[in-house]
Design goal:
Length: 336
Amino acid sequence: MSSRILRVDPWNPAPETIEEAAAILRFGGLVAFPTETVYGLGADGLDPRAAAKIFAAKGRPADNPLILHFAAPEAVDDVARVSPNARRLMELFWPGPLTLVLPSRGTVPSEVTAGLDTVAVRMPSHPAALALLAGAGVPVAAPSANSSGRPSPTDASAVADDLGDAVDLILDGGPTSVGVESTVLDVTGEHLVLLRPGGCSVEEIETRTGAEVLLSGGAAHRSPGTRYRHYAPRVPLLLDSDAGRIVRAARESGTGERRIAWVGMHAPETSLGEGIAHPELRIVFDSPENYARGLFHALRAFEEEGADLIAAQWPSSDAGIMRALRDRLTRASMKE
Ligand code: TXA
Ligand code: MG
């Protein structure tokens, strides 16, 4: 059985549709909905039983906390202590793809925070998401609406493929615009610490706040979720920086029957060997922003096309959205 899918105009969502979805959330059900980054799998973030359904539907490890989503910054005060620095970040970047980790007030169920004394909060900019959050009237816990470990969903069909009937309703607002998840920033200490690169760049945060963003090095400083292999397609993914392995994999297959896919910002380098990437399995984006927007969709499309191996271009630097791209590519290519 598959779950119910309702179309929603992303810019001008129909009130009846939003109210139907909001009612499901208020009654403890699961609603997948579009945000500007990726689709989220939402549940009432103050209801432990509703939050538990998220973990069951995704097959998500219980020690990986969820982000709470809000329709307005003021509502955050009920669940977290908001410092002047955090307030300023909200003023500068909300609504938008920046998640803040703040000290918890202890009002959020431990299912959501995974027992941490902090809570992650975000106000998305997607109009349909904002309408849903306002209608629900509660903080909405929402991880990406994929099965745990799979590429994040950037359209409704990816949600349906992964979660099937485990979700009560999928709101289909078309493809998402950013394509990678929000940036997660730890604001609990003296310094801003980047826990996960994402749709809001480090440069932008530093320029607009005048403060330095520390890059989390040690495991202790990383988001629990970033410990796992993640975003991985069912087909092995290799980075072009590992050209030798790609060429070897192609040779080992012998007859050239092997279907190697390519995704990046230019055609595969000739050093990868002539004709290695199957012409029908090449997706080339014209900018880092479009690479980020289309990466997860490309990985899922290659699976469906029956690729045997995916080769992906390693972005040329850490600048802007490329930091998030590098992070997702690294973790999608990790061995189990
Ligand atoms: O763009 C996004 O952020 C999407 C959309 C749906 O809003 N959501 C999303 O959620 O990516 P999820 O669950 O896939 O990733 C949340 C990340 C995980 O790495 C998790 O460990 C981290 O945020 N996180 C959540 N609460 C945290 C906390 N209290 N401290 C540190 N990291 C936390
Ligand atoms: Mg996720």
